[in-house]
Amino acid sequence: MPASPPQSIAARSVRHVWHPCTQMKRHADAPPLEIVRGDGVWLFDAQGRPLIDAISSWWVNLFGHNQPRIKAAIAAQMDRVEHVMLAGLTHAPVVELSERLAVRTGLDHAHYGSDGASATEIALKMSAHYWRNVGRPGKNRYIGLAGGYHGETVGALAVTDVPLFRASYAPLVRIAHATPVPDSRACPSELDQAARIEQAVVALDAYLQRHADDTAALIVEPLVQCAAGFVFHPPAFLARLRELCTRYEVHLVADEIAVGMGRTGTLLACEQAGVRPDFVCLSKGLTGGYLPLSVVLTTDTVYQAFWDDDAARGFLHSHSYTGNPLACSAALATLELLDDARLRANAALAQRLDALFAPLHEHPRLRHARRLGMIWAWDVVDAPGDFAPRFAAAALQRGALLRPIGATLYFMPPYVIDEEAGAALRDAALGALAEALR
Ligand SMILES: Cc1ncc(COP(=O)(O)O)c(C=O)c1O
């Protein structure tokens, strides 16, 4: 009997790998693309074809693939110790990382998780537990922003206001209140913007007047709600949220998982509003896209409420890989790369790229061109229902990894993209747009 031909990695993947955020039936005719190598902003498939990683591999990669400094930091740590549990033990990388994050954020206490959703759940649990420890156990509900996204584990889904992700699990979830956002697209003038902020603030104020006593925290994605379709709100709104949270004694949780680590131009997006949250969640770019790690940073006030002889008043939350030394070493190398000079260089680079992207800003089928830091987004006018997958496939054929969210096209490239790759990305996007709208 002839031997059956060896199956490709892509075919084997469809058989045994249940891919994330994917209706697997889509892969019946179009298997996933096998990637064998990465270098800078480029990924390479099994045929050696280059692809620009224009979305930083789900927003995690900051300094490109195959980054020598991050690789060296991980390798050096690998020769020392790869992993130890963080209960009862500690190690230099986690201590140094916590110290550096404290200096850069003003939040002194770091609790680690693995992915973004574990960080948002840690912050939400810690907030409610804080209120319990200070004698206000009734404060155990949450508020999120309309359209907010904070991860997809059951607790995080409570504050993730995206029906596609939540509807199937609604009976499992204790759904949080969603408060309106002054979407910058609806505010063409500063006057409109001020009025929209006021409307949103009045709505939240009215809710808090009735519910502050049962609300632990408000969780927000500061400045840009990426998964909602790149909904931008002005820093002034964030500052008003801080005021309301302080007035009504509700924690402000800044989920900076997507927008932190320099993505919006500052290390944390909150800095642009002059706001210090009670909790900051970081993940994704924290390790430069190398290893899974998340962290929740919080204040001394919160920390002190858990300091007690009674174990049950402590925060008894853990994950096996909490504070993994390799991941912390990658994060330390990433923070070294992401210094103030780099943030300034990013601002200049973003402006140069912005000029290159002019044909997209002016494209008759794109509107609401918007940018903050190294995030660009446009909404497609009259997009067909299947625009996103069609566009993504057409972009792949043209050498760009892009995944629109609904009818919103966006770029979120690594910070090492140069103008040549920027021009190639623009041309791929224009070509894919023409094909997907045909
Ligand atoms: C703002 C925000 N929070 C939380 C998450 C969840 O992170 P993870 O996918 O690592 O669980 C994401 C992921 O996209 C995110 O964008």
From TrEMBL:
Keywords: Aminotransferase, Biotin biosynthesis, Pyridoxal phosphate, S-adenosyl-L-methionine, Transferase. GO terms for biological process: biotin biosynthetic process. Its cofactor is pyridoxal 5'-phosphate. Its EC number is 2.6.1.62. GO terms for molecular function: adenosylmethionine-8-amino-7-oxononanoate transaminase activity; pyridoxal phosphate binding. Pathway: Cofactor biosynthesis; biotin biosynthesis. The gene is bioA_10. This is Adenosylmethionine-8-amino-7-oxononanoate aminotransferase. PANTHER family: ADENOSYLMETHIONINE-8-AMINO-7-OXONONANOATE AMINOTRANSFERASE. NCBIfam families: bioA. It is an enzyme of class 2 (transferase). The lineage of its organism: unclassified sequences, metagenomes, ecological metagenomes.
